[in-house]
Amino acid sequence: MTQSRNLGFIGLGSMGSAMAPRLLKNGHVVIAYDIDGAAREDFAAAGGVAGESVAEVGDRSEIVFTSLPSPQIVRDVAAELAETRVRIMVDLSTVGSRASMDAAVALADRDKAFADAPVSGGRAGALAGKLTLMLAALPAVQEEVTPLLSHFGKVIPVGAQPGQAQTMKLINNIMSVVALAATSEGMAMGVKAGLDPRVMLDVLNVSSGQNSATKDKFPRAVVPRTFDFGFATGLSLKDVRLCLDEAQALGVPMMLGNLAKTMLDITAAQFGPDADFTMMARVVEQWAGVEIG
């Protein structure tokens, strides 16, 4: 166990509510804030301190972790924290490199540090402490925050500049969606041809076609027909849009990425943005006139 620290956490949504309690379980004093009063009450019931504002969390913490839904909210929270006593803001959100760089500048103007640390692994990984965390920060900041981030899972440093971890996360996410789309089509084709979907996954997962969808999403959420992998279509769309914007700014064509976005757009239009993104398979099933699983 690391030495007990006075920590803050802002954003107790699906991911934040799973991560913040892990800091408590590892002996840290944690004050947390969310705009949802019920989320604050749940955190207090778990042994944490419910803060009344971003400013209060910043003034009572050495280091503040944030798990927030949009680039602008990250910018706004960074600007508020810059006016408090906090020394380091560690952003666990997926918001793109430009928002991270803006947050870092706002904090640096007040002699405060920023760590860009998006996570992968979903709520289940957060609850189990088995996330993958991509970390970009100055070496001294990395050294200080890595033991704390390790409470959430495996930490992989990817660079020293804010935004580099965001870029890595967006690449990961768009590749994951492309794999989901391709697997949906392949599985629908196989089932319509008379193949058993479970046998198909057995073959794929020891062959060159294996990917994150065949190894996890389909056996866990599609074949059993639960469609509850734990990641909303709307959030996936947000990440894919960020990736496509950054790729365009860098002059990198993303033909498959744009097709994946179209599939997410259709999924959201048909089932709603809150539907699990594995519902993409349902779209393909309807087109193919077949049911996987």
UniProtKB/TrEMBL annotation:
- Top-level EC class: oxidoreductase
Q: Where is the active site?
A: K169
* A single GO molecular function term of this UniProt record: NAD binding
Tell me the GO BP annotations in alphabetical order. organic acid catabolic process
Q: Which residues form the 6-phosphogluconate dehydrogenase NADP-binding domain?
A: 7-156
Taken from the record, one Pfam family name reads NAD_binding_2
Enzyme Commission number(s) from the entry: 1.1.1.31
Q: Where is the 3-hydroxyisobutyrate dehydrogenase-like NAD-binding domain?
A: 163-283
Keywords associated with the record: NAD, Oxidoreductase
Name of this chain's protein: 3-hydroxyisobutyrate dehydrogenase
Source species: Sphingobium chlorophenolicum
